[in-house]
Amino acid sequence: IWTTVFGRRMADEALFQFLHYELMQYIYKSADSKETENGRNITKLENMGFRVGQGLIERLTKDTARFKDELDTMKFICKDFWTCVFKKQIDNLRTNHQGIYVLQDNKFRLLSQLSAGKQYLEHAPKYLAFSCGLVRGALSNLGVKSIVTAEVSVMPTILLQKI
Amino acid sequence: MSRQSNRTTDSKKMVGDSSRINNSELFTLTYGALVTQLCKDYENDEEVNKQLDKMGYNIGVRLIEDFLARSSIGRCQDFRETADVIAKVAFKMYLGITPSVTNWSPAGDEFSLILESNPLVDFVELPDNHSTLIYSNLLCGILRGALEMVQMAVDVRFVQDTLRGDNVTEIRMKFIKRIEENLPAGDE
Description:
Oligomer: heterodimer
Distance between the termini of chain A: 45 Å
Strand content of chain B: 5-15%
Distance between the termini of chain B: 55 Å
CATH superfamily of chain A: Trafficking protein particle complex subunit 3
Order of helices and strands of chain B: HHHEEHEE
Number of strands of chain B: 4
Order of helices and strands of chain A: HHHEEHHEE
CATH class of chain A: Alpha Beta
Helix content of chain A: 55-70%
Largest sheet of chain B: 4 strands, antiparallel
Radius of gyration of chain B: 18 Å
CATH architecture of chain A: 2-Layer Sandwich
Shape of chain A: globular
Strand order of the largest sheet of chain B: 1-2-4-3
Strand content of chain A: 5-15%
């Protein structure tokens, strides 16, 4: 019984990961395969993530009280939102208290399909674009305008910077 | 707030339900964004339907491995068993719904999956100019691709769709033939 429960709990996440991968493949395939297209594809993915993030946060915060301040909002993103989307919380949140927040995820789920190793690092950005959009979209609907970028240092850790 | 895996049935139900609702919304919303993008990129619904089927197929051929690993279901004895596994295990596992299996053909090679609700279409309305769009066509591709990997060639299509005004969503699955393993491609 325990195995079945475990299987089901992660299965919908797996389904989303498969969809996300196909989405990435589609965006990249439908563009001309030139170096210059990479930026546009990243933007397309990011924009899709943005719209999904907006919709998602709306559902998630339907019955939630308003946030006290920006930090409160970021904590929500790190805990509730991240758990909703990635089934875990952000591992580390840092801020300079002047509008820059760094969110660290040490086991970013969408990168788990990608092998660790330097030669794959160049592919990481397209795996992160949609998720950056998700965060930006969520924040947008919470009244926070942001720029969200992501960095991968050692796979699959990512750092999201909200400016 | 991080939950560990050794929980009782009750608390699992609580946590599981809320995270299931939210995660299926992630899938639903992402799927919606995908269909929207496809409608922008392609001129007609037929093309979009084909793309969705193709993408579904790509997902299906990989999903089957994931499914077999999670469910530890053995080889199905016949198409009836396959139908039950699809409806009661696979759909439940990935989409949280259990379609009913009905309308078997006399030969036992064709059946319908009736979905009372379709999580993919939550919050979705089809605009008038997309009347031939098979919004959830990804599912057909997924089923087709997954079964192909277990040596079954099937035809899968929507025959009823709540988005197009029907009362239920009905997917018709037809067994075409058994695929022999390890034959060179293109011989059939």
